[in-house]
Amino acid sequence: MDWLGYDAVAMRSGEFWRPFTAWITQLNLRHWLLNQWGLIVLWLLWPARQPLKALLPYLVVWLLCSVALAVSDYDRYVGLSGLLYGWLVIGAVRTRAYPVWVQLLFLLILSGKVILENIQPSGGRDWVGELIAADVAHESHLWGLLSGWLCVVIDWLRQQVQSMRVSPD
């Protein structure tokens, strides 16, 4: 699966798929298990019976994060966590399975964690890095978080425009 991971040198040599496939490769079993836990949380947020068009924001997060990876300073990258942060933002906003205060608390904690790890990336102990035996790509978490919030804001704006068209004045 090494041919799927992001490698800047290989990408510059014509392997343009690498920023788009790096998300499905993992460093090791612990890394894979940690990302599976994120997918379980996402599944718990997922509303039942979603139409196919509900996947569009998730695809947008994947596309935006892939472009960010392609223009980043990373030499190598593997892992799903960057996408997971964006997907969790979308899932938390869309879910109706939990009260609004739980959704807001989840979003606050999620956003706060990513912001803190990016303003002081080397400050404090990085337990995830120790667990997966590798450096954590904190910037990819920020790309995902921002992409998720962008999708949420665009969806909210779309709803506002639609409601203005429907409202008789």
UniProtKB/TrEMBL annotation:
<feature type="domain" description="Peptidase S54 rhomboid">
    <location>
        <begin position="14"/>
        <end position="155"/>
    </location>
</feature>
<keyword id="KW-0472">Membrane</keyword>
<dbReference type="InterPro" id="IPR022764">
    <property type="entry name" value="Peptidase_S54_rhomboid_dom"/>
</dbReference>
<feature type="transmembrane region" description="Helical">
    <location>
        <begin position="55"/>
        <end position="71"/>
    </location>
</feature>
<dbReference type="GO" id="GO:0016020">
    <property type="term" value="C:membrane"/>
</dbReference>
<feature type="transmembrane region" description="Helical">
    <location>
        <begin position="77"/>
        <end position="93"/>
    </location>
</feature>
<dbReference type="GO" id="GO:0004252">
    <property type="term" value="F:serine-type endopeptidase activity"/>
</dbReference>
<dbReference type="InterPro" id="IPR035952">
    <property type="entry name" value="Rhomboid-like_sf"/>
</dbReference>
<keyword id="KW-0812">Transmembrane</keyword>
<keyword id="KW-1133">Transmembrane helix</keyword>
<protein>
    <recommendedName>
        <fullName>Peptidase S54 rhomboid domain-containing protein</fullName>
    </recommendedName>
</protein>
<dbReference type="Pfam" id="PF01694">
    <property type="entry name" value="Rhomboid"/>
</dbReference>
<dbReference type="InterPro" id="IPR023826">
    <property type="entry name" value="Rhom-like_SP_proteobac"/>
</dbReference>
